[in-house]
Amino acid sequence: MNTTFTPWLSLAGGALIGLAAVMLMASTGRIAGVSGIASRLISPFAERAGRLEALAFVVGLLLALPLWWVFAAKPPTLQLVGGTPLLLVAGLLVGVGSAYGSGCTSGHGVCGVSRWSTRSLVATVTFMATAVLTVHVLRHTGGVAS
Amino acid sequence: MRPFASLLAGLVFGVGLLLSGMTNPAKVQNFLDVFGAWDPSLAFVMGGAIAVTATGFALLRRGAQTPLFGHAFGWPERTDVDMPLVLGAGLFGVGWGLGGLCPGPALASVPSGNLGVLGFVVAMLIGLTAPRWRSLAQRRAGPVLPTAPVAERSDR
Q: Where are the domains of chain A?
């Protein structure tokens, strides 16, 4: 599936992601790691206030697309790369992996790398490597074509 | 104020994800397809995000004692690299590569109503509870040796 190279939009979007991470830290003192926030939301062990803040962050995330519909001419492109069974497996791996790995693309890849955290640098290099390898196997070694 | 600030940060985060192209699984996979149909856009997302975050975090560390609506900054303090970190990150990468979705973009795409995305999110939320599966299974199996509760980590 072809996609267009969008350096400026991607840079601007990335800057907004960074701004959001700084906003959350400056206002509440928390790391903007989405897997951590999502697991705080569903954890029976999270304290009440922490869960409410996690819920608020997720509600904000969920409001972005409706806001986009109001102000933008066309919806953002969404091209899935596999059927539902594959996405279920992928989702499970992403969940289990970020739970044991203590973070995902946002918590490790953005916030952790920005702090030059050893754990996050190791995690980011590791998941980038396995992700590149997975796509390579999927697309170039006779695996499931997408 | 804290929930309101969190909501606003989530909203800005979500708009950033949509603008950046991270919410399009095909674009993510093309970025990861370094030796094929490579679309380097997401390197710009990472670059932009890290530039702003690193600057902002450095300013906060230097210039602020406490967050605006709180008593202390929750900077993660762990520095040890252990097996769960490496294996977990490895599994995460496999899932990210397979589906082209990671937690933020998946959640931000939920309002699209796409069933594949919804399935991914439900499976992801189940997966996030994985560290508690073992203690659950032990409880089911009847009386066992007392185990320590699963610690909630702050660095994710």
A: 7-140
Fill in the DSSP letter of residue A56: H
Contacts of A144 (CB under 8 A, 6+ apart): A82, A86, A138
pLDDT tens, position by position, for chain B (156 residues)?
Answer: 999 999 999 999 999 999 999 999 999 999 999 989 899 999 999 999 999 999 999 999 999 999 999 999 999 999 999 999 999 999 999 999 999 999 999 999 999 999 999 999 999 999 999 998 877 787 777 665 555 555 545 554
Residues 6+ apart with CB under 8 A from B47: A11, A14
The DSSP code for B106 is H
Asked if residue B45 lies in contact with residue B21, where contact means CB atoms within 8 angstroms, the answer is yes
Sequence-ordered list of residues with C-beta below 8 angstroms from that of B153, at least 6 positions apart, any chain: A36, A102
Q: Do A102 and B88 touch (CB under 8 A)?
A: yes
Q: Which of A87, A114, A128 sits opposite B119 (nearest CB)?
A: A87
Residue B156 lies in a domain: no
Our CA-based measurement puts residue A23 at a distance from the nearest CA of chain B, in whole angstroms, of: 6
User: Which amino acid, residue A124?
Assistant: T
**Structural domain contains residue B127:** yes
Tell me the ipTM for this assembly.
Answer: 0.96
- Look at residue B90 and tell me if it is in a domain: yes
